[in-house]
Amino acid sequence: MREAAYENYFWQNEKIRLRPWREEDWECLYNTGFDTSLGRLAGYRVSFPPTASEAKEYSKEVENCKTKDGRTVFAMETLDGVHVGRIIFSLDEERHGTFGIGLRIAKEYQGKGYGISAMKILLQYGFMERRLNKCSATVLETNEGSIKLHKKLGYDQEGLLKESIYMNGSYHNEICFGLTKTMYLKSISNTCEKSEHREYC
């Protein structure tokens, strides 16, 4: 099979490429299940010990961009093909134009800009291709990395849910973030000249 040409590929930018989740990606899912601190930040809980069978079953259910419970799972790869994590596009309510994005990156690949780069692709997809109007997120107040990421992307802090999460023996606050299409367009206007997708400028 001829090698794919990515020069005009929507699902990548200068740092990251998104591709459909594959059944064989189960091992990445399985291995990240051993990082309890990551699980607490992403899922607000301590999960039962991961199993290969559970990871394989989930991977089979969401492979090839199948939508499960309104969620579409993508694998995140570097431009060299290194699998660094997964990102989920979650359609909350199409009638109201609301959606969310969740991601999980293996610890050794965190802090390299992969998360924000992948988020930019799905924000562009949600706002410019799906006609959606608002992307919302709730973040644990101790998740400094996620808070910083959302602020960099132009999200506004819309509220605080006090002591709404119980974890590790105590209650924690959740920060509510929101990004509307109008805010999104404003946030990218300053960097539009550098964008690979100038058709949206």
TrEMBL record:
Pfam families for the chain: Acetyltransf_3 (PF13302)
Record Gene3D superfamilies: 3.40.630.30
InterPro entries: Acyl_CoA_acyltransferase, GNAT_dom
Domain spans labelled N-acetyltransferase: 16-184
PANTHER family: GNAT-FAMILY ACETYLTRANSFERASE, SPERMIDINE N(1)-ACETYLTRANSFERASE
Protein name (Swiss-Prot/TrEMBL): RimJ/RimL family protein N-acetyltransferase
Organism: Clostridium punense
